[in-house]
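[Help] Beginner question about ligand-bound structures

Sorry if this is basic. My supervisor gave me a protein sequence and a SMILES string for ribulose-5-phosphate and asked me to "get the holo structure". I don't really know what that means in practice or what format the answer should be in. Inputs are pasted below exactly as I got them.
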Amino acid sequence: MTQDELKALVGQAAVAHVVPGSIVGVGTGSTVNCFIDALAPLKDQIAGAVSSSVKSTERLLALGIKVLDANEVSSIPVYIDGADEIDHGGHMIKGGGAALTREKIVADLAERFICIADASKLVDTLGAFPLPVEVIPMAATQVIRRFGQAYGGQAQVRAGVTTDNGNVIVDVRGLQITDPLAMEAEVSQWPGVVTVGIFARHKAKVCLLGTPEGVRTLTF
Ligand SMILES: O=C(CO)[C@H](O)[C@H](O)COP(=O)(O)O
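Answer (accepted):
No worries, everyone starts somewhere. Holo just means with the ligand present. The predicted complex, written as C-alpha coordinates, is below.
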Protein backbone atom coordinates (compact mmCIF):
# COMPACT_ATOMS: atom_id res chain seq x y z
CA MET A 1 0.00 0.00 0.00
CA THR A 2 1.30 3.48 -0.81
CA GLN A 3 1.51 6.27 1.75
CA ASP A 4 -1.38 8.03 -0.02
CA GLU A 5 -3.51 4.88 0.26
CA LEU A 6 -2.71 4.66 3.98
CA LYS A 7 -3.73 8.30 4.42
CA ALA A 8 -7.01 7.64 2.60
CA LEU A 9 -7.61 4.61 4.82
CA VAL A 10 -7.29 6.54 8.10
CA GLY A 11 -9.14 9.57 6.70
CA GLN A 12 -12.08 7.29 5.99
CA ALA A 13 -11.77 5.51 9.35
CA ALA A 14 -11.90 8.82 11.23
CA VAL A 15 -15.45 9.47 10.03
CA ALA A 16 -16.72 6.76 12.42
CA HIS A 17 -15.44 8.91 15.32
CA VAL A 18 -17.49 11.99 14.36
CA VAL A 19 -20.38 12.47 16.78
CA PRO A 20 -23.63 12.83 14.77
CA GLY A 21 -25.30 16.24 15.18
CA SER A 22 -22.17 17.79 16.67
CA ILE A 23 -19.47 20.21 15.52
CA VAL A 24 -16.26 18.57 14.35
CA GLY A 25 -12.79 20.10 14.66
CA VAL A 26 -10.81 19.77 11.44
CA GLY A 27 -7.02 19.90 11.21
CA THR A 28 -4.77 20.56 8.24
CA GLY A 29 -2.65 18.54 5.82
CA SER A 30 -2.81 15.83 3.22
CA THR A 31 -4.17 13.20 5.64
CA VAL A 32 -6.87 15.58 6.86
CA ASN A 33 -7.77 16.31 3.23
CA CYS A 34 -8.70 12.62 2.95
CA PHE A 35 -10.83 12.98 6.08
CA ILE A 36 -12.58 16.08 4.72
CA ASP A 37 -13.38 14.25 1.49
CA ALA A 38 -14.77 11.30 3.45
CA LEU A 39 -16.80 13.64 5.67
CA ALA A 40 -18.52 15.40 2.75
CA PRO A 41 -21.27 12.78 2.21
CA LEU A 42 -22.22 13.19 5.91
CA LYS A 43 -22.35 16.99 5.83
CA ASP A 44 -26.07 17.10 6.66
CA GLN A 45 -25.54 14.92 9.73
CA ILE A 46 -23.14 17.32 11.50
CA ALA A 47 -23.64 20.82 12.90
CA GLY A 48 -20.59 22.10 11.02
CA ALA A 49 -16.82 22.24 11.31
CA VAL A 50 -14.29 24.45 13.07
CA SER A 51 -11.27 24.67 10.80
CA SER A 52 -7.59 25.07 11.65
CA SER A 53 -6.41 26.78 8.45
CA VAL A 54 -7.42 28.76 5.40
CA LYS A 55 -6.61 25.72 3.24
CA SER A 56 -8.89 23.38 5.19
CA THR A 57 -11.63 26.02 5.27
CA GLU A 58 -11.49 26.32 1.50
CA ARG A 59 -11.73 22.55 1.05
CA LEU A 60 -14.59 22.23 3.55
CA LEU A 61 -16.58 25.01 1.90
CA ALA A 62 -15.94 23.66 -1.60
CA LEU A 63 -17.52 20.39 -0.48
CA GLY A 64 -20.52 22.16 1.05
CA ILE A 65 -19.52 21.65 4.69
CA LYS A 66 -20.51 24.54 6.95
CA VAL A 67 -17.55 26.23 8.69
CA LEU A 68 -18.10 27.90 12.06
CA ASP A 69 -16.06 30.64 13.71
CA ALA A 70 -14.06 29.24 16.65
CA ASN A 71 -15.21 32.25 18.70
CA GLU A 72 -18.80 31.04 18.47
CA VAL A 73 -18.02 27.58 19.79
CA SER A 74 -17.41 26.65 23.43
CA SER A 75 -16.68 22.95 23.06
CA ILE A 76 -16.15 20.35 20.37
CA PRO A 77 -16.43 16.62 21.07
CA VAL A 78 -13.79 15.53 18.58
CA TYR A 79 -10.84 17.12 16.77
CA ILE A 80 -9.39 15.16 13.85
CA ASP A 81 -5.88 16.08 12.71
CA GLY A 82 -2.67 14.59 11.35
CA ALA A 83 0.84 14.77 12.78
CA ASP A 84 4.41 14.90 11.56
CA GLU A 85 5.46 12.54 14.37
CA ILE A 86 3.62 10.80 17.19
CA ASP A 87 5.26 8.89 20.01
CA HIS A 88 3.98 5.94 22.03
CA GLY A 89 2.50 8.32 24.61
CA GLY A 90 0.40 10.30 22.09
CA HIS A 91 2.71 13.35 22.12
CA MET A 92 3.16 14.86 18.68
CA ILE A 93 5.20 17.16 16.52
CA LYS A 94 2.92 19.21 14.30
CA GLY A 95 3.25 22.22 12.04
CA GLY A 96 4.82 20.74 8.93
CA GLY A 97 2.02 22.54 7.10
CA ALA A 98 2.59 25.73 9.15
CA ALA A 99 -0.90 25.57 10.69
CA LEU A 100 0.20 24.72 14.24
CA THR A 101 -1.22 27.77 16.02
CA ARG A 102 -4.77 27.38 14.79
CA GLU A 103 -4.43 23.61 15.22
CA LYS A 104 -3.58 24.08 18.89
CA ILE A 105 -6.48 26.52 19.32
CA VAL A 106 -8.98 24.03 17.89
CA ALA A 107 -7.40 21.16 19.82
CA ASP A 108 -7.86 23.24 22.98
CA LEU A 109 -11.59 23.52 22.27
CA ALA A 110 -11.91 19.77 21.78
CA GLU A 111 -12.61 17.02 24.27
CA ARG A 112 -10.76 14.38 22.24
CA PHE A 113 -7.86 14.74 19.81
CA ILE A 114 -7.94 11.92 17.29
CA CYS A 115 -4.72 11.74 15.33
CA ILE A 116 -4.78 10.20 11.86
CA ALA A 117 -1.42 9.18 10.45
CA ASP A 118 0.33 6.63 8.32
CA ALA A 119 2.61 4.23 10.18
CA SER A 120 5.79 6.14 9.22
CA LYS A 121 4.79 8.87 11.70
CA LEU A 122 5.06 6.63 14.78
CA VAL A 123 8.41 7.16 16.55
CA ASP A 124 10.08 6.21 19.82
CA THR A 125 11.39 9.74 20.49
CA LEU A 126 10.17 12.98 18.90
CA GLY A 127 12.69 15.12 17.04
CA ALA A 128 13.84 13.48 13.82
CA PHE A 129 11.24 15.69 12.10
CA PRO A 130 12.36 19.35 12.34
CA LEU A 131 10.36 21.02 15.12
CA PRO A 132 8.25 23.91 13.75
CA VAL A 133 7.84 27.02 15.89
CA GLU A 134 5.59 29.90 14.84
CA VAL A 135 7.35 33.14 15.71
CA ILE A 136 6.56 36.85 15.38
CA PRO A 137 8.97 37.98 12.61
CA MET A 138 10.97 40.50 14.68
CA ALA A 139 11.80 37.77 17.24
CA ALA A 140 13.07 35.14 14.77
CA THR A 141 16.80 35.67 15.31
CA GLN A 142 16.45 35.84 19.09
CA VAL A 143 14.39 32.61 19.15
CA ILE A 144 16.98 30.87 16.93
CA ARG A 145 19.78 31.99 19.28
CA ARG A 146 17.85 30.88 22.34
CA PHE A 147 17.22 27.41 20.88
CA GLY A 148 20.92 26.96 20.35
CA GLN A 149 21.69 27.96 23.95
CA ALA A 150 18.90 25.94 25.57
CA TYR A 151 18.70 22.77 23.50
CA GLY A 152 21.31 22.80 20.76
CA GLY A 153 20.02 21.79 17.35
CA GLN A 154 20.09 23.87 14.21
CA ALA A 155 17.27 26.38 13.85
CA GLN A 156 16.40 28.37 10.77
CA VAL A 157 13.52 30.33 9.33
CA ARG A 158 11.48 28.31 6.81
CA ALA A 159 12.05 30.08 3.51
CA GLY A 160 9.10 31.59 1.68
CA VAL A 161 6.48 30.72 4.30
CA THR A 162 4.14 33.14 6.07
CA THR A 163 1.52 31.59 8.33
CA ASP A 164 -2.22 32.31 8.20
CA ASN A 165 -1.51 34.65 11.13
CA GLY A 166 1.21 36.65 9.31
CA ASN A 167 4.15 35.11 11.17
CA VAL A 168 7.23 33.05 10.23
CA ILE A 169 8.09 29.44 11.01
CA VAL A 170 11.42 28.53 12.62
CA ASP A 171 12.31 24.85 12.04
CA VAL A 172 14.66 23.23 14.55
CA ARG A 173 16.66 20.20 13.41
CA GLY A 174 18.71 17.78 15.46
CA LEU A 175 16.61 17.65 18.64
CA GLN A 176 15.86 14.61 20.77
CA ILE A 177 12.71 15.54 22.64
CA THR A 178 12.78 13.25 25.66
CA ASP A 179 10.44 15.40 27.80
CA PRO A 180 7.87 16.90 25.40
CA LEU A 181 5.71 18.41 28.15
CA ALA A 182 8.65 20.29 29.69
CA MET A 183 10.00 21.56 26.36
CA GLU A 184 6.55 22.70 25.24
CA ALA A 185 6.04 24.61 28.50
CA GLU A 186 9.48 26.24 28.35
CA VAL A 187 9.58 27.29 24.69
CA SER A 188 5.98 28.56 24.82
CA GLN A 189 7.12 31.23 27.29
CA TRP A 190 9.88 32.73 25.15
CA PRO A 191 9.04 36.25 23.94
CA GLY A 192 8.00 36.21 20.30
CA VAL A 193 7.04 32.54 20.25
CA VAL A 194 3.42 32.23 19.22
CA THR A 195 3.20 28.43 19.26
CA VAL A 196 5.68 25.58 19.48
CA GLY A 197 4.80 22.51 17.41
CA ILE A 198 5.02 20.12 20.36
CA PHE A 199 1.54 18.87 21.21
CA ALA A 200 2.02 17.37 24.67
CA ARG A 201 -0.49 19.30 26.75
CA HIS A 202 -2.92 18.74 23.87
CA LYS A 203 -1.77 15.25 23.03
CA ALA A 204 -3.79 12.68 21.10
CA LYS A 205 -6.24 10.50 23.01
CA VAL A 206 -6.49 8.14 20.05
CA CYS A 207 -4.33 7.54 17.00
CA LEU A 208 -5.71 5.81 13.93
CA LEU A 209 -2.53 4.52 12.36
CA GLY A 210 -2.57 3.38 8.74
CA THR A 211 -0.57 0.18 8.28
CA PRO A 212 -0.40 -2.27 5.36
CA GLU A 213 -2.45 -4.65 7.54
CA GLY A 214 -5.18 -2.04 8.07
CA VAL A 215 -6.01 0.63 10.65
CA ARG A 216 -4.33 0.12 14.02
CA THR A 217 -6.01 2.02 16.88
CA LEU A 218 -3.68 3.30 19.61
CA THR A 219 -5.18 4.82 22.76
CA PHE A 220 -3.28 6.98 25.23
O1 LIG B 1 0.62 19.71 11.50
C1 LIG B 1 0.21 19.68 10.37
C2 LIG B 1 0.02 20.92 9.57
O2 LIG B 1 0.46 22.06 10.24
C3 LIG B 1 -0.11 18.39 9.73
O3 LIG B 1 -1.02 17.71 10.53
C4 LIG B 1 1.14 17.59 9.58
O4 LIG B 1 2.10 18.35 8.89
C5 LIG B 1 0.89 16.27 8.84
O5 LIG B 1 0.58 16.53 7.51
P1 LIG B 1 0.31 15.40 6.45
O6 LIG B 1 -1.00 14.76 6.82
O7 LIG B 1 0.25 16.14 5.15
O8 LIG B 1 1.46 14.42 6.52
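A couple of things worth pointing out: The chain has six helices and 14 strands. The CA atoms of residues 213 and 220 lie 21 Å apart. Feel free to follow up in the thread.
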